[in-house]
Design goal:
The longest helix has 135 residues. The radius of gyration is 66 Å and the shape is rod-shaped. It has three helices and no strands. Helix 1 runs antiparallel to helix 2. By secondary structure, it is an all-alpha fold.
Amino acid sequence: MVKVKALAFACLVLTAMPTMAAGGADAGQYGENAAIPMAIISWICFFSLLFVGGKIAWKPILANLDARETRIRESLENADRIDSQLADTEASTKKLISDAEASAKTIITGAKETAQKLAKEINDTAKAEAQSLRENALKDIENARAKAVSSLRDESAELAVTLAGKLIGENLDSEKSRVLTDKIIDTL
């Protein structure tokens, strides 16, 4: 509004200058008396143009300028609001990413620990089963050996009794005894 008043004052001064100058040495045929009616006419023209221009041109121009200023202010406020929302969104995104990374690290660490525990359990179980199989095999071998020795003793005893019975039943000399023993061994 201050600009409009300054512009109006500048127009007044510029329109009144020629009439004020007319009162000097070049006044013409009307002399100094012509300056006052010219000044009045200039003032009337100026205020008429100011009034008409104010109603027709200035109000719409000022309304458009005010509307533009309002749109620009709203756009700046909107841009500031969007910037703050963007900053908030970036902060929440960074927080989500860091939380996701921490969660992933925790999951990976847990998975590694679980895998190590499971591998240790499997290894321990395999060792225990191997040891159990070894012990069972040793027991089986020992049992088989014991049975074989027992069976051999029983068979040896029977063989000895049989041989002794045959030797006693027949009067054998050492040559016959050897041949008979070899013959019995071959049959077994």
